[in-house]
Amino acid sequence: MDNKIITAIARLMNVKSLVTIALTIGFIVQSVRGELNNEYSSVYLVVISFYFGTQYQKATQGKDIADGET
């Protein structure tokens, strides 16, 4: 169990994940303070879309390879 947690944390420690986490924290802080502007929201939306889009693409490609498709 402990090894799984360490592995999960290690996977999070790449630049893409760190940027996404930092932007999410900034988004939450600005939202709570009522200081959120449209520019930050737009940048946040693009980064989050990119992050989850690449995650989806990796999962889809892995499934296609496992199914024998290319």
Summarize the structure.
The chain is 86% helix and 0% strand. By secondary structure, it is mainly alpha-helical.
Descriptive account of the structure:
- The structure is a single chain.
- With 70 residues, this protein is mainly alpha-helical.
- The protein has one domain.
- 86% of the residues lie in helices and 0% in strands.
- It contains 3 helices and no strands.
- The mean pLDDT is 83.
Helix content: over 70%
- What is the distance, rounded to the nearest whole angstrom, between the alpha carbons of the first and last residues? 34 Å
Count of distinct strands: 0
Total discrete domains: 1
Number of DSSP helical runs: 3
Mean pLDDT: 83
Proportion of residues in β-strands: under 5%
Alpha carbon gyration radius: 16 Å
Secondary-structure element order, N to C = HHH
Largest sheet: none
- The chain-level structural class is mainly alpha
Low-confidence stretches: none
Q: What sort of overall outline do the alpha carbons produce when their principal axes are compared? A: flat
Features:
single chain; 70 residues; mainly alpha; 3 helices; 0% strand
Task: Give the SSE map.
Layout lengths: L1 H11 L2 H19 L4 H30 L3
Helix pairs in contact: 2-3
